[in-house]
């Protein structure tokens, strides 16, 4: 069974606006964030979704509900299902902190005092491992912990008995998670120095029968 997943980054929040790390913590959508959700909804209003999922964070749920409200093609309207598996990575002690300061704390001991510096030198997975090391409580998710949780979310999709081969699924998700998927599964031709914008749509084909490492094919990014 192959599912066509339309993954939308939630609308802008106040933490996004203030350049603060926002994983499991929440801040409300800004006026611009509400407009992001509206724009995504208009873009997807003609797509017939057979299911709708989102992170259980309020910013993702609010974005998803607005997209479904505007959808003209899904009949009946899918019930939104939420799961903690689709949350953004957990930043632990650094939740809500200024991004520049947090990534300096994570990367400076390794000679890479910025998020992009860590990615360029060590790979995206190292951003999670280094942040967990820097966390005085070691609560932040490392790369292995993060992917174990996310893979559980995709298993929920694979086990959804209402879905059939070729169905379309709305998934409202998070920026760093979408970027992580691209780093793991995208081929050449994508500019991954560009983070997914709030309200953007990224499309994946998900082969539910394949091992996870070979289950995702990127169709489009950050549209």
TrEMBL record:
Name assigned to this protein: Histidine phosphatase family protein
User: Lineage of the source organism?
Assistant: Bacteria, Bacillati, Actinomycetota, Actinomycetes, Bifidobacteriales
Arranged from A to Z, the UniProt key words for this protein are: Hydrolase
UniProt keyword annotation of Hydrolase present: yes
One Gene Ontology term, aspect cellular component? cytosol
InterPro entries, A to Z = His_Pase_superF_clade-1 (IPR013078), His_PPase_superfam (IPR029033), Phosphoglycerate_Mutase (IPR051695)
Q: Which domain of life is it from?
A: Bacteria
Which Pfam family is an annotated match for this chain, by its short name? His_Phos_1
Where are the active-site residues found?
Answer: 10 (tele-phosphohistidine intermediate), 88 (proton donor/acceptor)
Species source reads: Bifidobacterium xylocopae
One Gene Ontology molecular-function label: fructose-2,6-bisphosphate 2-phosphatase activity
Q: Where is the signal peptide?
A: none
Q: Which residues bind substrate?
A: 9-16, 59, 88-91
User: Which is a GO BP term held by this UniProt record?
Assistant: regulation of pentose-phosphate shunt
Entry's Gene3D superfamilies? Answer: Phosphoglycerate mutase-like
């Amino acid at each position: 069974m192959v599912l066509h997943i339309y993954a939308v980054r939630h609308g802008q929040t106040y933490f996004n606006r203030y350049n603060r790390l926002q994983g499991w913590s929440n801040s409300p959508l800004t006026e611009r964030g509400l407009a992001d959700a509206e724009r995504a909804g208009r873009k997807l209003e003609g797509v017939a979704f057979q299911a709708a999922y989102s992170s259980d964070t309020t910013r993702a749920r609010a974005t998803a509900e607005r997209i479904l409200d505007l959808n003209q093609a899904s009949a009946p309207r899918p019930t939104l299902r939420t799961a903690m598996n689709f949350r953004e990575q957990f930043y632990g002690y650094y939740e809500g902190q200024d991004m520049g300061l947090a990534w300096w704390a994570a990367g400076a001991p390794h000679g890479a005092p910025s998020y992009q510096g860590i990615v360029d030198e060590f790979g995206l997975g190292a951003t999670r491992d280094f942040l967990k090391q820097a966390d005085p409580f070691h609560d932040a998710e490392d790369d292995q912990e993060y992917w174990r949780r996310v893979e559980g979310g995709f298993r929920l999709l694979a086990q959804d008995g209402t879905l059939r081969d070729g169905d379309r699924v709305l998934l409202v998700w998070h920026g760093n998670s979408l970027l992580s998927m691209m780093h793991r599964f995208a081929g050449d031709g994508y500019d991954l120095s560009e983070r997914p914008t709030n309200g953007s749509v990224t499309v994946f084909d998900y082969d539910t029968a394949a091992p996870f490492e070979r289950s995702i094919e990127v169709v489009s990014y950050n549209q």
